[in-house]
Amino acid sequence: MADGSIAAPFDFLSYKIDKIEMNMEKKVGYLINNAPVFSEDINLSIKLRNTEKYVFEDGASHYIGGLSTLIELIDKETKSVMLKGEFGISGVFIAKEPVEKNAEENFARINLPAILMPYLRASMTNTLSSAGFGTILFPLVNIYELAKNKNLPIIDHSAEN
User: Could you tell me the CA-to-CA distances from 43 to 70, 134, 136 in Å, in that order?
Assistant: First the structure.
């Protein structure tokens, strides 16, 4: 490592999309519509999940966290909801060395969902595009602003192992 560089205390191990659910209104107009969907035609809400902590025999702390999104695609002409969906993602991170409590809480509340969001966004884009909805231009999401005032305690399962 170069002089002056800083090693991150958390390593990203893996993620999985853990929920995909979609329902579209059964209307012929929705089936034949291939127009791009722009951010103003999308209602998106995001729910941050509590992070769970596990410490195993090797002393490394594993953190499992994630987020869920609720999405509505709005038909431009009728202004009605043509599709409702829910997507979720979980990820696993590891800290091989002990981390101070404040850094751990900030990571779990802000950094963990911010790292996972692009993976969820890509999955949503690919799924909706493959489902025939054409190009989807999602609104940008500021995870920091979303998470900074949330009190999502870490659920510590360390004593259970």
Answer: 8, 17, 12
**pTM of the full structure:** 0.88
Q: What are the pLDDT digits (tens) for 114-146? A: 999 999 999 999 999 888 887 787 878 888 888
pLDDT, tens digit, 9 for 90 and up, residues 65-113 = 999 999 999 988 888 999 999 999 999 999 988 889 999 999 999 999 9
| Amino acid at position 21, single letter | E
Residue ranges and CATH numbers for the domains of the chain are 11-150 (3.10.420.10)
Coil/strand/helix, residue 62: strand
DSSP string, 77-115: TT--EEEEEEEEEEEEEEESS---HHHHHHIIIIIHHHH
CA gap 33, 117 in Å, rounded: 28
Which amino acid appears at position 80 of this protein? S
